[in-house]
Amino acid sequence: MSRQNSLKQVGAVLIVFLCAAIMIIGCAVQRSRAGRVGAAKQKPWRAVHIMTPGPDGLPLLKRAISEALAPMGVNVLILEVNYNFEFKSHPELRGDRALSKADVRGLAQLCRKHNIRLIPQLNCLGHQSWSRGGNLPLLAKYPELDETPQIPKGSKDIYCRSWCPLNPKVNEIVFPLMDELIEAFQADAFHVGMDEVFLIASDQCERCRGKNPAELFAKAVNDLHGHLVEKKGLTMLMWGDRLLDNATMKYSKWEASENGTAPAIDLVPRDIIMCDWHYGLRNEYPSVPYFQQKGFRVLPSGWKDAKAAVALRDFARRNATEKMIGHMCTTWSNSSDLCRALLGEGEARGNAKQSAQAAQAAQALRACFEATPTGATELGVQGSRFTVNGKPTFLLGISYYGALGASEEFIQRDLDDMQRCGFNWFRAWATWNAFEHDVSAVDVEGKPREPFLSKLKRLVAECDRRGMIVDVTLSRGGGKKDVARLQTLDAHRRAVETLATALKPYRNWYLDLANERNIGDSRAVSFAELKQLCESANQLDPRRLITASQAGDISRDDLRQFLTTVRVDFITPHRPRDAGSPQRTAAKTKEYLAWMKEIGRVVPVHYQEPFRRGFQPKRWDPPADAFIADLKQAIEGGAAGWCFHNGDQDHTLGGKPGRSFDMRERRLFDQLDDEEQKFLRALPSIMEVKQK
Fold it and tell me: 296: closest CA among 277, 316, 321, 279?
């Protein structure tokens, strides 16, 4: 073989190799893209549209994001900025409530922390003035850009002014504004508005006179698309109303076009996300399937009427194709009023009409985004055993008292770790006001307390999906440090009713009416009162499993009261906390079961709160072996459930008090100490023996 032929063969092999490599890389890229698309399908948009608050309102908005929106599962936040930004390219266009770049960066960082996609909005073409009000900055500073300059200010004959879509100076000004917002927000998407454009192709405009409204509208859309999508690589969103023909859709003139812009739907790119807004209650929303049939991704968008918002959401779900990306709640109110409504912090303080709208918008938002039950998990009782979905199940649990104070990320990671360890239930308090941080789901009068009641609902819903059980506990009085909780029987009854109503659709939780009801201070709840509370719960939800816990071992007489007077569904004694307690658990369990047979009613024995570390460390600080022994004894004695009680109210972790009781800065599994971790390592072998 000649040297020349050898080189040719080597070259051919290299070419084949390079082609194969390119194909492999191409396939990998396609798989990566497909993976991203698949991930997007798995996480539908739960979007909220909010007006810019201004610098003074940012702290409240950040709280609402962390304490209300993120726990509700919101993953997209569209912030309508318009001219309320400290623009460098055109400082003359800064609004009165202008945010700085630092303001926006801080907000973007918070949203990333909560896995929320932050999208800026600048209203384009229309909405360049307010009805009967003054022009917004663009037309105020550049009146020559007005589509209808002859119409006097404050005229009753127009709704909102538009800029001229054919004036080249518009894009020269607006595109740099967009670029600044994109850079400050670190945005990968941009909302351009484009709704309610009534003034277009005006005879008063020398450029637009006699032109086709649909072509003019499409020209404006395509200009924006060229800059945002083709040049900047962003995703573009817009309101869809001007692309709908009202003669066909039978909406109002606000929701669909009556001025000839609708044919533009066939003249604009299909990769634009259409925000299809409708605020009234209807049986059908024909634009939802229409946009999908035209090839657009669709984000249905409701407002303050909760029934209408849910109806739109549900219609969209029933008529969804792969083009349906989720749901959006608009709010159209003062941002601070909305945030206070979401946080449950009393009456709003702004304009009375906007305050009412904010409260309604918050209610509609909760109605749309609070999780609905899957019906996947149902707790039951069968003699002395618990059942889950009809199957006898030993409840192995863990204390998670401050769960409602944990971030969404912490909760998901903790739940993952619980299930990894074999835990199938946990205990969370609905009245938890400790370490100067109140995360109670009900207030001192027993009424709903947001955002924590909504967070509790989401927590129960997530556990329903995971096949986990939730212990929801109430407590009377102030406790050792006189922290205000439910001070009266009436308040206590309202709390029971609040929880029974809010969580009724879910079958994977039970209610502890009163933690350690026999403590001799303001926490004490008599058997007569427990009976009334139990009856209140049963009236609202007859199938709900009810208990009431007791400090220390339960006497025979008290056991009879629990079973025959209160009629709890299972007993929850909090056994004595001393070094000998673990070795007595089996015998005590058998004694309870024997007494119940004598009384004539046998129910499960559930060790909901045994000893823990840090309770009285000078007297006894239980090691891992004590937890192991107690669990084994509970199983041996015939108990139906047991809890790994954890936490230390006095000792610190990283300089922070309330180890395992305060979840704001560290999640539960990152707070457990060495002995508790040692117990967790031993847990699988214990439960493996039980299953055999």
Answer: 321
Q: Report how far residue 381's alpha carbon sits from residue 561's, in angstroms, rounded to the nearest whole number.
A: 19
CB 272 within 8 A of CB 224: no
Dist CA 135 CA 298 (whole Å): 31
Cα separation, 525 vs 193, whole angstroms? 57
List for the chain the helix, strand, coil content (%; round to 5). 45, 15, 40
Q: Which helix (H) or strand (E) holds 499?
A: helix 489-502
Q: Considering only CA atoms, which of 520, 524, 529, 603 is closest in space to residue 559?
A: 603
Tell me, yes or no, whether 427 and 282 share the same domain.
Answer: no
Q: Please, are residues 117 and 111 in contact by the beta-carbon 8 Å criterion? A: yes
- As given in the structure block, the two tokens for residue 691 are 């299953």
* Cα 360 from chain centroid (whole Å): 18
Nearest to 518 by CA among 489, 549, 497: 549
Q: What is the DSSP letter of 537?
A: H
**Vertex 612: Cα angle to 387 and 669 (nearest 5):** 75
Residue span of the structural domain in which 98 resides: 43-369
Helix extents (H) in 517-606: 527-540, 556-560, 581-599
Q: How confident is the model at residue 651 (pLDDT cuts 50, 70, 90)?
A: low
pLDDT in tens, 33-60: 333 333 334 589 999 999 999 999 999 9
Query: In angstroms, rounded to a whole number, what is the distance separating the alpha carbons of residues 61 and 103?
Result: 12
- Quick check: pTM over 0.70? no
Same domain, residue pair 181 and 81: yes
Read off the tokens for 64: 């609402």
Are 535 and 646 found together in one domain?
Answer: yes
Name beta bridge partners: 282: none
Name residues whose C-beta falls within 8 Å of residue 231's C-beta, 6 or more positions apart in sequence: none
Separation CA 589–CA 578 (nearest Å): 17
CA angle centred on 361, ends 359 and 364, rounded to 5°: 110
Same structural domain for residues 159 and 119? yes
Say how far apart CA 473 and CA 471 lie, in whole Å: 6
With CA atoms as reference, report the closest residue to 226 among 269, 166, 165. 269
Number of domains in the chain: 2
Q: Is residue 128 part of a domain?
A: yes
